Amino acid sequence: MAHAQPIGRAAQSPGGGDARPHRGHGGLSVELGRPDVRREVADAARAAAAGRAGGGGACLAVLACGPAGLCDVAAEAAAVHGAAGGVCIDFHRETFEL
Predict the structure, then answer these.
(1) How are beta strands 59-66 and 88-95 bridged, if at all?
(2) Nearest residue to 7 (alpha-carbon basis) of 56, 50, 46, 53
(3) How far apart are CA 71 and CA 98, in angstroms?
(4) What is the Cβ-side half-sphere exposure of residue 5, based on CA atoms within 13 angstroms?
(5) What angle, rounded to 10 degrees, do the helices at 68-85 and 37-52 form?
(6) What is d(CA 65, CA 97) in angstroms, rounded to the nearest whole number?
(7) Of the four listed, 42, 68, 71, 94, which is most buried by Cβ atoms within 10 Å?
(8) How would DSSP label each residue in 9-47?
(9) pLDDT tens-digit readout, 5-34
(10) Cα separation of 87 and 78, whole Å?
């Protein structure tokens, strides 16, 4: 059975400052700043498609939790990269406003 892998990296914040990565509990990376959601989904879809070369189906779950704008960007990226890369992408959103 495959295990979920957390993804993420430091992203440039809109104010021009770099996000700062921190090593969290259990080896998970916690990063401050705004994520580049389109790039994260694209990278994950590419990795899933590359894994398909081993004979299995390529499936990916994209889970977005945040303001509607963030969730909309994540949903759009999941639709674009799922269709373009031939990857089955399940999308789930939890929306809230600050």
Answers:
(1) parallel
(2) 46
(3) 14
(4) 13
(5) 30
(6) 10
(7) 71
(8) ---B-TTSPBP-EEE-GGG-EEE-S---HHHHHHHHHHH
(9) 444 443 443 333 445 555 666 777 777 888
(10) 9
pLDDT of residue 1: 39
Which residue in 81, 90, 73 sits closest to 4, CA to CA? 90
Distances (CA, A) of 59 to 6, 11, 30, 38, 76: 15, 25, 25, 17, 17
Q: What is the DSSP letter of 90?
A: E
SS3 helix, strand, coil % of the chain, rounded to 5?
A: 40, 25, 40
- What pLDDT score was predicted for residue 19? 54
Q: One-letter amino acid identity for 38? A: R
pLDDT tens-place string over residues 37-59 = 999 999 999 988 887 665 566 88
